[in-house]
């Protein structure tokens, strides 16, 4: 069977700029690549047909196929050093909080090489007990285990001391105190060996063992799941009191001569840097983004912000399924031609024949030349949201999916890719294998669910907006969330109209500030989606293509952040919903998230406010009261995720709700953040708050906002060849928004 | 805890007539039981032709993956919903649903 996938290093490129494309193709000897401009997605029988155009570029052609490997799993790496090689006796120690003890051997720290059977290290054995490994070369291995498994999600002090002269190995495994009752006991065990470990070729690692070479990259194995705090290395076998001294945040003076390294993970939390406080400066770095800004062994519960007490956040949480950059070699490189039109593009890959045929799209967007707009309309591609959903596996494997979807779970061939290839990593909708939430997501890896065909979610239905703009024949530029994050208002300033996709859910502060400033300066926003402007995210300050979200105290959450871990590591910003940070979506969009359901969509019904002369332009030529009782996304324009007007949350008082959806099913439940006290009137058949509100309001500077409050909305645009009331009224809005005639703020009602 | 009453064939008829959209409270309770089955062994659909053909599958293994049941191919989601409803009815109540 053909397995074809790839990714690009850029998501948004301007003419003259370059993108590298990385491909893995298993099966056929060759594959073909074509650059295509995407005009309309494959939306099924109730939408216009799929439409793309092949763009003649130098990279279109056949390529030799090769399989490229993803090395998943996070770890910390300290480069090789003579200081490690020179050690005869030693002590290794750390505070640890294991999350999957007993699930295979797992490394904690050391130079132990699985490939060479050299070096030394402590880890967890198959049963989850502390284990020391010494290696003298192939097959020449000494081990000692405490024989007592560590308890899951409990802090321990663990240490191994080896005295080369006597051959004595000693292990210490002590549960730390806390408010929880437990029956874990301290264990001290000794053993003897004649083996003297020899130095291998690998580095000193945390949370993984050296596994050899992978085409020039480090192969690792035995990945640890859990936290490590205050790791230390000493040059002799310490007694228990000395271990305690070495474990101090600042090891006491008497330990100085024996200390080889005293790593402090509370330093440089926003980075990949690992800092050694010893004079040996055995610094290093993390690989594949283990989670930082997590509570350490000494967290008191009285500090919630890691910046206020970094010493209580001296742990790193490693996962066997962390991934940042797949690190593949480029297959082809495209420099965008100077005349390349701004738009939604992809490298379309095809390989194999007949039942072995495979197709894969690597999407990217071409923005206009930097500092220049080529149209008055911009389509803002929700690349932050796409990134958050990259390889959403939990949607298919979580037991609750069918309950909240209200239908049998549907997947397609591409959806199965990350199930068959877990090395592709997870989305921020998933939990790691140890149950902790995935808070980082990178686009530097293949994604199964960012494609113009198949199941309709996010990227794919967002292209309905592109299709509609194409149908309108209006010139438009495509810009992305990542551009908005970096350039803010400057990016939006030239545009009269910005149209969103179906679900612009994730916003950094920089993005929101840029959008807010633009709408206050005459910009006209067409928010054509649902559940937008919802989660606060951070982009990494230096690493490209990776974002962070912490699903904190409230909201519709795929997982819940550990208590004390609500502040994002990348920037130190408080994570969670914008609603909890004084900027609910209602402020910028006039509506905010109220409900979701995925069984059926419903139409809107025009309200009395639609007769207001301020909104007569919206309904020009639209006679129907019922709007959008059709569409490619569950048969209606209002569905999947819904937003409603709510003055309490800051929907503008002068906003007009021109239409509201009705008759949603039992599956549509009130969002968690709206339920302070449990009650049983939370579904749409009993709760009138559950509806999508179509809202219009004017903004200062002659601008305006039009919001639809529904993910399904865009799926109705192309129905019946774009001849329908949703397309008509949306086009009316676009045309009026393109008219430079300023909108006037209405006087305050008295 | 709520248990599905195999005598309530009227609820099955209601579902067949309208698998998506508003349901009576009694049918909703039945669906909550059915949709809340454990993921291991749960039926899912694999879209084998975009938006036009779906094949029944069962989630198996850890982590679970769909195993295609290629002899059950549907050309509408409603048809698939009804097929799975009948399977689950028998699985949960121990009695086959006396409806086609």
Throw out a few tags for this protein:
heterodimer; A: 750 residues; mainly beta; Immunoglobulin-like; Jelly Rolls; Rossmann fold; 3 domains; 16-stranded antiparallel β-sheet; 45 strands; 11% helix; B: 100 residues; alpha+beta; three-stranded antiparallel β-sheet; 3 helices; 37% helix
Sum this structure up briefly.
The complex is a heterodimer of chains A (750) and B (100). Chain A is mainly beta and 750 residues long.
Would you write up a description of this structure?
The complex is a heterodimer of chains A (750) and B (100). Chain A has 3 domains: 107 residues, Immunoglobulin-like; 244 residues, Jelly Rolls, CATH 2.60.120.200; 373 residues, Class I glutamine amidotransferase (GATase) domain (Rossmann fold, 3-Layer(aba) Sandwich), CATH 3.40.50. The radius of gyration of chain A is 28 Å and the shape is elongated. In chain A, strand 11 and strand 12 form a beta hairpin. With 750 residues, chain A is mainly β. By secondary structure, chain B is of the alpha+beta class. Chain B has one domain. Chain B has 3 helices and 3 strands; from the N terminus they run H-H-E-E-E-H. Chain B is globular. The chains are: A mainly beta (750), B alpha+beta (100). The interface between A and B is medium-sized, with 36 and 33 residues. Strand 29 of chain A pairs parallel with strand 1 of chain B, so a sheet runs across the interface.
């Amino acid at each position: 069977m053909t397995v074809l996938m790839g990714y690009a290093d850029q998501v948004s490129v301007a003419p003259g700029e370059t993108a590298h494309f990385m491909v893995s193709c298993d099966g056929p000897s060759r594959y073909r690549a074509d650059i295509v401009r995407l005009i309309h997605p494959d939306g099924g029988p109730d939408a216009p047909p799929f439409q793309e155009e092949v763009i003649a570029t130098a990279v279109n052609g056949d390529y030799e196929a090769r399989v490229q490997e993803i090395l998943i799993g996070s770890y910390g790496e300290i480069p090789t050093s003579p200081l490690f090689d020179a050690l005869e006796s030693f002590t290794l120690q750390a505070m640890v909080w294991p999350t999957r003890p007993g699930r295979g051997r797992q490394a904690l720290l050391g130079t132990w090489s699985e490939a060479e059977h050299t070096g030394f290290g402590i880890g967890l054995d198959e049963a989850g007990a502390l284990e020391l490994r010494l290696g003298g070369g192939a097959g020449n291995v000494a081990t000692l285990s405490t024989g007592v498994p560590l308890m899951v999600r409990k802090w321990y002090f663990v240490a191994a001391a080896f005295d080369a002269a006597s051959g004595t190995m000693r292990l210490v495994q002590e549960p730390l105190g806390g408010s929880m009752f437990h029956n874990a006991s301290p264990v001290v065990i000794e053993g003897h060996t004649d083996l003297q470990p020899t130095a291998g070729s690998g580095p000193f690692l945390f949370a993984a063992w050296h596994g050899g070479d992978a085409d020039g990259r480090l192969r690792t194995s035995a990945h640890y799941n859990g936290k490590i705090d205050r790791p230390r290395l000493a040059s002799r076998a310490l007694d228990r009191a000395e271990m305690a001294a070495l474990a101090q945040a600042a090891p006491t003076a008497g330990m100085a001569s024996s200390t080889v390294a005293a790593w402090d993970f509370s330093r440089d939390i926003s980075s990949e840097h690992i800092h050694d406080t010893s004079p040996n400066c055995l610094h290093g770095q993390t690989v594949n983004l283990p989670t930082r800004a997590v509570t350490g062994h000494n967290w008191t519960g009285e500090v919630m912000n890691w910046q206020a007490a970094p010493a209580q956040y001296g742990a790193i949480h490693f996962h066997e399924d962390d991934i940042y950059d797949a690190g593949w070699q480029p297959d082809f490189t495209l420099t965008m031609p100077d005349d390349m039109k701004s738009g939604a593009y992809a490298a379309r890959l095809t390989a194999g024949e007949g039942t072995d045929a495979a197709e894969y799209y690597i999407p990217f967007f071409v923005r206009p030349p930097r500092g220049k707009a080529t149209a008055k309309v911009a389509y803002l591609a929700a690349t932050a949201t796409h990134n958050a959903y990259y390889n959403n596996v939990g949607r298919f494997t979580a037991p609750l999916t069918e309950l909240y979807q209200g239908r049998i779970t549907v997947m397609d061939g591409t959806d199965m890719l990350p199930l068959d290839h877990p090395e592709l990593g997870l989305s921020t909708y998933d939990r790691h294998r140890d149950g902790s939430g995935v808070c980082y997501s990178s686009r530097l890896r293949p994604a199964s669910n960012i494609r113009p065909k198949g199941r309709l979610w996010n990227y794919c239905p967002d292209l309905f907006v592109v299709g509609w703009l194409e149908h309108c024949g209006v010139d438009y530029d495509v810009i992305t969330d990542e551009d908005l994050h970096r350039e803010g208002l400057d990016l939006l300033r030239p545009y009269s109209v910005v149209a969103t996709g179906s679900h612009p859910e994730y916003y950094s502060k920089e993005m929101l500030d840029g959008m807010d400033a633009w709408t206050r300066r005459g910009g006209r926003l067409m928010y054509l989606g649902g559940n937008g402007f919802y989660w606060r995210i951070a982009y990494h300050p230096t690493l490209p293509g990776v974002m962070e979200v912490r699903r904190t105290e409230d909201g519709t959450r795929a997982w819940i952040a550990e208590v004390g871990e609500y502040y994002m590591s990348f920037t130190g910003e408080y994570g969670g919903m914008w609603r909890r940070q004084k900027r609910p979506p209602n402020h910028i969009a006039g509506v905010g998230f109220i409900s979701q359901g995925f069984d059926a969509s419903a139409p809107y019904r025009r309200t009395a406010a639609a007769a207001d002369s301020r909104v007569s332009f919206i309904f020009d030529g639209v006679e129907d009261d019922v709007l959008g009782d059709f569409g490619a996304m569950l048969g209606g324009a209002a569905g999947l995720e819904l937003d409603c007007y709510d003055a309490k949350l800051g929907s503008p008082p002068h906003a007009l709700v021109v239409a509201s959806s009705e008759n949603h099913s039992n599956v549509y439940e009130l969002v968690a953040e709206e339920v302070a006290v449990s009650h049983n009137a939370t579904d749409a058949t009993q709760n009138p708050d559950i509806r999508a509100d179509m809202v219009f309001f004017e903004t200062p500077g002659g601008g305006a906002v039009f919001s639809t409050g529904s993910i399904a909305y865009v799926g109705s645009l192309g129905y019946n060849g774009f001849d329908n009331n949703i397309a008509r009224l949306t086009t009316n809005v676009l045309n009026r928004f393109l008219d430079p005639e300023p909108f006037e703020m209405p006087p305050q009602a008295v | 805890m709520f248990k599905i009453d195999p005598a309530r064939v009227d609820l099955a008829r209601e579902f067949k007539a309208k698998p998506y959209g508003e349901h009576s409270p009694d049918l909703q309770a039945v669906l909550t039981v059915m949709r809340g089955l454990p993921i291991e062994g749960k039926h899912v659909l694999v879209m084998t032709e975009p938006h036009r053909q779906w094949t029944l599958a069962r989630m198996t293994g850890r982590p679970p993956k769909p195993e295609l049941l290629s002899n059950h191919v549907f050309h509408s989601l409603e048809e698939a919903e009804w097929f799975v409803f009948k399977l689950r009815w028998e699985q949960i109540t121990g009695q086959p649903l006396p409806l086609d």
